[in-house]
Amino acid sequence: xxxxxxxxxxxxxxxxxxxxxxxxxxxxxxxxxxxxxxxxxxxxxxxxxxxxxxxxxxxxxxxxxxxxxxxxxxxxxxxxxxxxxxxxxxxxxxxxxxxxxxxxxxxxxxxxxxxxxxxxxxxxxxxxxxxxxxxxxxxxxxxxxxxxxxxxxxxxxxxxxxxxxxxxxxxxxxxxxxxxxxxxxxxxxxxxxxxxx
Amino acid sequence: xxxxxxxxxxxxxxxxxxxxxxxxxxxxxxxxxxxxxxxxxxxxxxxxxxxxxxxxxxxxxxxxxxxxxxxxxxxxxxxxxxxxxxxxxxxxxxxxxxxxxxxxxxxxxxxxxxxxxxxxxxxxxxxxxxxxxxxxxxxxxxxxxxxxxxxxxxxxxxxxxxxxxxxxxxxxxxxxxxxxx
Lengths: 197, 181
Known about the structure:
CATH class of the largest domain in chain A: Mainly Alpha
Number of domains of chain A: 2
Number of helices of chain B: 10
Distance between the termini of chain A: 77 Å
Oligomer: heterodimer
């Protein structure tokens, strides 16, 4: 190898840091993840080209590594959430109305998707029993399965699984604890179930 | 000479067959730096290089969706990606030529992150014919074998060798002229 060939061989240029993640995101093969501040503290938000894929409070996943471990899709850290999406998320968290947001529920089963899509229609200030969702997805009798699907809701707060309660009037379980579920419902002036559990 | 591990290709091909998204992530992670580095020396702006380095993989991803397992298994990944990248470089060149003036070293130097040396090399490479430039970059910067370059560029091996030889001579002439100045 002569001098000029050696110089050419050394002419390596490193791509910008974000190019890999941006390329995989643009293909639709991965999500981007960034943090956003909210009335519920800092939240991790993941999104694909189709919409929001996950929301996790930082008290549940402290680091992006912890978040990625539980996220169903490959994800890359982004500097920030796109401005319009951030404004829509802030607005939805403030008002409880997520209708302006697009969600991407790919990677979930058809049943899970149906349950979450019905759940997303429950308006702020109202509650529905698990059995109601089961009926809406034409699986009456599958209230327990509905509960399981809601417990795995990847986009809590924005897909308001906290508005689904037990038919006996109790609040029921919640991924972040029954106390938080009750607080969320109080915040929305929802007709609160009497029981504390 | 930099050697590539063939088992890496096999691992990525298996991943692509099993889960296209996971395999694609490996494909980008493994090959995009090399594609970017080569494309950077075939185009005259970092924005063009970024766009082509991204588009190459987006096209590859879409193509993979229609490929049978057997086709993926026999793909020469690096050469395949370079075939896509080189086409994109040619399309870009034909769109911008002949009206656009040859970029000067001053234009390159406006990007803080570009070392002067790299800008000088782009200026020298810009004096080669498109075939010579592609052949020199693929052989001596990307480190592809002559046979792969012939397949990628659709030119006989002998012609590729001649392109490389003439290209190197012209680069040498440019450097000598700079030294005299």
